[in-house]
Amino acid sequence: MNEKLRHLIQNMPEKEPAEKLKTAILTRIERERTRVIKRKLWLSYAAIALSTAAILYALFTAGNALIHSEFWSLATLTFSDALTVARDWKDFLYSLLETLPVFDLSALIVPIAALFLSLSFYAGIRNDFPGKGFGNPA
Questions:
Q1: Which of 33, 40, 56, 130 could cross-link 136 (Cys pair, CB 3.0–4.6 Å)?
Q2: Could you tell me the pTM of the whole model?
Q3: Per-residue DSSP letters for 25-60?
Q4: Domain residues of the chain, as ranges?
Q5: DSSP line for 70-128
Q6: Would you call 133 helix, strand, or coil by DSSP?
């Protein structure tokens, strides 16, 4: 029975699906692929926008902390008492480093890393799916 069934299938005049069915299936697959690509692109756009906003906020916060710290009052000594600063430059540099708001400045690392990751995700999508109306001529 199994051999007869195989013989019947091999001798069928049409092994391929109907042309309309084939076109409908391929169109549906392409439409789903396009939808997935667009969703990934919008996700990457949102990640880029959010990480850029986080960088701007971190810059504002770090700049505000830097301005209100004792760092600037010590840094202005280089202009007013340059000879004293030049004589005791090691102590002056240690004092500058002690007053530098390191935590606020280091908080910039996370949003910058997030921006690089989101740009990498975006570039990966563009490389994996070139053309098809997504900005790259194919």
A1: 130
A2: 0.67
A3: HHHHHHHHHHHHHHHHHHHHHHHHHHHHHHHHHHHH
A4: 18-128
A5: THHHHHTHHHHSHHHHHHTHHHHHHHHHHHS-HHHHHTTHHHHHHHHHHHHHHHHHHHH
A6: coil
Comparing CA positions, the residue from 99, 132, 121 lying closest to residue 30 is 132
**Are the CB atoms for 74 and 95 separated by under 8 Å?**
yes
pLDDT tens-digit series, residues 116-131: 999 999 999 888 777 6
Q: How far apart are CA 111 and CA 123, in angstroms?
A: 18
Which residue in this structure is represented by tokens 């900005």? 135
- Distance CA(94)–CA(46), nearest Å, equals 42
